[in-house]
User: Fold this.
Amino acid sequence: MSQVPKFGFSAFLKLINSNPKPQKRLVRDRFRPSTGGYDFHKSLRQRVQKIAFENLGFLEALTSATEISKKAERDSAIRGLRQFFVWRQKNVGDLSACESFLFSSPKSLFKVEFTPTFLIELNGRRTAVHLWNTRQTLSAGLVNASLCMVANRHPLEARPDDFAVLSLQDGRLFRWSDANKETAEFGEKLLEVLDLEFASARLEFGLPTVAEGDAASDTPAP
Assistant:
């Protein structure tokens, strides 16, 4: 069975928002031996979810974040928590858990998992929100296109009313509901282009073609 690379949503956003050369490297990195890597943003997500689901206070969350041993991770978590606090003051709806959703590219050469950090009602819509806290500039068009990919493949009977990415770098909220038909079409073309890149990488690494139902290679990066 031929393994299929699997991306967490933040890793996928990083991929599509990269320039051609680093994007090509990121694709090929998925076929190189890996020990699994370190989840740099796990500590932030855990604290946000404890705020959302376990009534952890913001000051308590910030205090606990100061105890993170790695400085870069600690500083990132503290910045992210502060930005989330600012956003939360303006968006006070109840937060709840929401299941993740996995989808395959058109040729099944890679998979992407959209994992909401929480579900919240925004403007009357039950919105599944994924947090972004990586220091990389996001293109609104690319993010909205990626949200279209998720929404257009999600089963209707269990689909939230909206999907969103909240950037804890600058406080921007990207929403599927802000996308149009052209954005959705662009997203589909982007998946086709990425499939070509993954097919090229498989040839370079001497890997067999992918058969439908092949397993994803590992747990996705966040």
The chain has a mean pLDDT of 93. Strands lie at 6-8, 95-96, 101-104, 111-114, 118-122, 125-132, 162-167, 173-175.
